[in-house]
Amino acid sequence: MQKPEVAVCPATSDRVDIVYPPGPDIEGLFDLLKEALGPRFINGEDKIEPILEALPGLLKEEMNIQEIPIPSEGYMIVVGDLHGQFRNLMEILHQEGPPSAVRHYLFNGDIVDRGPSSVECAILVLYLRHRFPEYVFINRGNHEDQGVNAQETFVKEITDRGFQHLHNTFQQCFHTLSLGKIIKAKTETYLALHGGTPLHEGDPLSIKDMNSLERNMSCANKQDLLTQILWNDMSDKNGNQDSQRAGWGLKVGQEVLERFLGKENLKYLIRSHTEEPHGWRLVFSAFSEAAIYLKISAQRGLEIVKVKFEEPCHEDQWVSNLSLRTSETSLTSV
């Protein structure tokens, strides 16, 4: 795989533009993933393009908010915003192991954009949803939206790398992703959304009403209910506030969230979308671009897990330099 060329914009901007020279075709790229991950994760006979083309037809049959019970002897790993950081994704998978009856994964949106390897992240996460439909789940984030990823880096990346013929296929996969998960542990129930609780006339929308929304579309209105699920933020203060994201979504007040959780008999709202200084904080926010993810088990409840990288590695060297050894896990109970 050829390394991307990185062009840094003038000092007035923090943005980094990544320009990819043509690389392997989509099946050649998938072959590299097979080699890196092995048969525990990827069936050696599978081809990725027909899988991506068939996936929207399966995804659109899912409810907006799905219920997922955690196995009594197992756990669920919640991975927040990856944002094209493929090495973080690989380290999490090798640290925890392949999806199974006792090891479930939830990718909580914003798989693509900003990082240098959005194509790899999108291919692998969507493929895992296909191969392990009972163990791997995905929530849609605000970057799984054509209006957003066309302005950020994903569409540019697929064009630069010669995958533009799959543009519509990727967008159809993204737009048909479900919006949230009700995670049922032994004694506690959590709700995972990418952004936050949507509001209708100042009151939180019920899960029943969330399930009645149409989701197979791009967000056109800055504050409609679909947009809010993907874009809303949580506030530590009482009272709802205007968004600081150019008007997209709202900031939901603490008392509104508490009222929603109590009415729906939920322990926590688990969300991503917001970068936190330590990678997480209570409400919970999980931001896996910072190599932090959550682990929910029937026996131990909710834990915060930090990936420990054993050696430095640039993202564009993932094939040659990625350590496939299992990393030591640091757990902090909450």
TrEMBL record:
Listed GO MF terms: metal ion binding; protein serine/threonine phosphatase activity
Top-level EC class: hydrolase
PROSITE patterns: SER_THR_PHOSPHATASE
SUPFAM superfamilies attached to this UniProt entry: Metallo-dependent phosphatases
SMART domains: PP2Ac (SM00156)
Catalytic activity: O-phospho-L-threonyl-[protein] + H2O = L-threonyl-[protein] + phosphate
Cofactor: Mn(2+)
Keywords: Hydrolase, Manganese, Metal-binding
InterPro entries in the record: Calcineurin-like_PHP (IPR004843), Metallo-depent_PP-like (IPR029052), PPP_phosphatase (IPR051134), Ser/Thr-sp_prot-phosphatase (IPR006186)
EC number(s) from the headed UniProt entry: 3.1.3.16
Span of domain Serine/threonine specific protein phosphatases: 139-144
Family in the record: Belongs to the PPP phosphatase family.
Alphabetized PANTHER family for the sequence: SERINE/THREONINE-PROTEIN PHOSPHATASE 5-RELATED, SERINE_THREONINE-PROTEIN PHOSPHATASE 5
Protein name per UniProt: Serine/threonine-protein phosphatase
Organism from which the protein derives: Fusarium oxysporum f. sp. radicis-cucumerinum
